[in-house]
Amino acid sequence: MNNQRGLTILGLFSALLVLTFFAAIVGGIVYAFYWAHQETGMEGDVRRVQSAVDAYATASFEDTGTYMWPTADGELPKPGQDTAIDFYASFQGKAGGKRSFYPDFLPDLPRHYSSGVWRIDSKGDVSVNLERGEY
Known about the structure:
Layout: H1 9-64, E1 82-84, E2 90-92, E3 98-100, H2 101-105, E4 118-121, E5 126-128
Antiparallel strand pairs: 1-4, 2-3, 4-5
């Protein structure tokens, strides 16, 4: 008798099934971490820009006696509306020096800063006009 041992079709199929199962689990974990990172990045940028907007408005009031906002006209929009944030907005400080939203109050620009997706509403609240998956 010939006592050859080898891989049967059933054994090969079982091995492939186990490998596919583990690959699906690892792929799902990587996918979940990727989306969690995307959401965390966007939420962190929103908090950072909001903090800079608040500091900009406070500093402008201290320097000029008027609240100014990082928008094209330095004003907040009408109630119920929003407008684009101007990352290069500035005002004249007490000593005559120019103070800019970026980089004086916001040291690093957030993602998508030039595409007009960063908005500010009539209450001074910052938002991003992108879906989480697009950020």
